[in-house]
Amino acid sequence: MRFSEDAVLRIRPPAGAKDYWKPDDALPGFGIRFRSGGAGIYGIRYSLHNKDRRLAFEQVGRVTLADARTWARKQFLDVANGTDPAVSRARESSKASGYVERHIAAYLGYLKDAGRSESYIHENTRSLQVYFKTLHGQAPADITRAAVATELAIIRKDRGPIAGDRARSHLCSYFGWLMREGLLEHNVVLATNRIGAKARERFLFADELRAVWHALGTGHYADIMRLLILTGQRKTQISALRWEEINFADAQLELPAGRMKGRRAHIVALAPMALEILKQRTPRAGSPYAFGRDSGPFVGWAKSKSDLDKKIGDEVQENWTVHDLRRTWSTHASERLAIPQHIVNAVLGHKLGGVRGVYNRSQYLSERRAALEAYAIYIAKIVGSDQR
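The structure assignment produced for this chain is given below.
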């Protein structure tokens, strides 16, 4: 039968036929397929590399016969040139549904299932959702090395070289995951430059600590910052502190492995000065967090730090970050209080490396408590507090 615009609308499969093919005599290989009583679908049949294939186009009546034939001729031309149109369509379909943004949630879920810490997942979320937002609407396969390099240059300019290198690492790992999922063939991030910036060496001197302490005032941010000064912990470990992680009876924080960068549970002894800060806090209805607004943890870092810097003025000359408080704890504990380095590392939650890390499983709990209590007394003298 030679198809016509009117005739194709009247074609029906034989009664009981589950899979019926009606060919168009005017274009060999082109026809209409009916399956299980469904509507007729324009499509083609072809052979390539000794394999018989089928490819559907569109439902009869939704496109004209002329358009369907034009489509079919294009597919047959690809076949004649050795290209499988079914494979080409699969690639285009994958490309269309494979925008960078669409797989980020799955990747973050993968990191969570892999046991990565909350802080690491938070850093990846910020990099992928915020820093590389301009890449969201593109298919991973279409993103060029130049495009990634451009975004990295912007991040380094706005946020510094270390932030740029970290963002690059997060994107590279994400693209590596996409490759393992079969959604990407090449990881162009690998071919971009890593600045290799040296880690910050900034720490606050005693007079700077005093200025920061007194400029903090009161409130969530003030309490978080004072606890960071007293304990040397990472900011997310304190800002996202849950009430269930505070053991008031034993005067310690009990942080689960999922909240630690090294994926090991961590105990932080609380000196009386630190414990008192937490005792003054009041639980919020519907929130498991000790700090923050509504039901979530504290997140207002940028504005709070900016306001703090304005209050401090020129009492702290050089640019400093909240993470510098962690380095400050380590430096003062080692140099001013002569606390052994392995105890300092244990307080900070660092994992011992090499042979020592393999054979020494001691947690030094009593030594860590003594170190944190001694440090709190040291801070009390610096800031002029009579708390011990």
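Interim note for the steering committee: The two ends are 98 Å apart (CA to CA). The first strand starts at residue 19 and ends at 23.
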